[in-house]
């Protein structure tokens, strides 16, 4: 190969390298510019989203104190409530309100016609919805204590609306009435309440609370709907934990009712719960006296050995596991105890005359405490 050919070849190679370097610079420049543009676009979207959400959680108009009546119908979901608030100009965005409520784990909103203002903050709106601070005046209030059974609740309802408790109790157990409620609350009132051995389908499902009413003569259905709204709101707070434990609403309310009926004000409900779970794990019957009383369906001053012989699926001296359904309504403390029992090895507990509850791991220890604290008359 001649020297001229060699020079020409080197020149061509050098030219190609130069062209490639130039192309690489262009590509790097394009990539750099594209990256910057994408960052700006994403940043703009994120920034815009942040600004929008930040604006949406603030009052619609901090200076506007114009009163607007906002009606929240019975049985409204958070989505429905949010939309009603947006439609009336009380909040800026129903979706933001809904996610704000979910983020703060708020629930227990009450139906009614509310006195709202565009100047209200989201927390003020939520507080009003939870406390039932409405525009209408309360005509009467109805208090349902913890540990009440369905027949007792029927009597309380009847007294408030001028009806016989027996008539109210009959309606609460009417098949068509129950089925209509099941259709309205499919996640709360499942087919389990119609189990073969369940004595009263709504037993344990009417939440203990004080309920305000805004008209003179609400129907039994209206009253029960308000109560089931409350139960539904409370239970919804624990759906994640129930799913994790593979526990149904019926099982949760049943266990909670047993804890409620055994508990005293001084007692550690989580420890009672642990006794029940420990017994079920070992195949022992729960042997809790309130189930015997429930099976007899009448007040007994004291549970005697002869009472333990009653043939009933609710008798936990003769049957293992939970009762077919709740035996009373339970408050939040008992519901949480049913979900979060203490970690113990207790298999026995004993309530003393002073209200104290003593726990034991063995039968000998339990019998010794009985001898020390229980006087047989």
From TrEMBL:
- Key words, A-Z: Cell membrane, Cell wall biogenesis/degradation, Lyase, Membrane, Transmembrane, Transmembrane helix
- The main location is membrane
What do the Gene Ontology cellular component annotations say?
Answer: plasma membrane
Provide the catalytic activity annotation. Answer: a peptidoglycan chain = a peptidoglycan chain with N-acetyl-1,6-anhydromuramyl-[peptide] at the reducing end + a peptidoglycan chain with N-acetylglucosamine at the non-reducing end
| Pfam families membership | YceG
Question: Which segments does the entry list as coiled coil?
Answer: none
One MF annotation (Gene Ontology) recorded for this entry: lytic endotransglycosylase activity
Q: Transmembrane ranges?
A: 30-53
Q: Where in the cell is it found?
A: Cell membrane
Entry EC number(s): 4.2.2.29
Could you tell me the membrane topology recorded for this protein? Single-pass membrane protein
Site label Important for catalytic activity, positions: 262
Q: Name one GO biological process term.
A: cell wall organization
| Similarity remark | Belongs to the transglycosylase MltG family.
In terms of PANTHER family, this protein maps to: ENDOLYTIC MUREIN TRANSGLYCOSYLASE
Question: What role does it play?
Answer: Functions as a peptidoglycan terminase that cleaves nascent peptidoglycan strands endolytically to terminate their elongation.
Which HAMAP family does its entry note?
MltG (MF_02065)
* Name the UniProt record assigns to this protein: Endolytic murein transglycosylase
Q: Which gene encodes it?
A: mltG
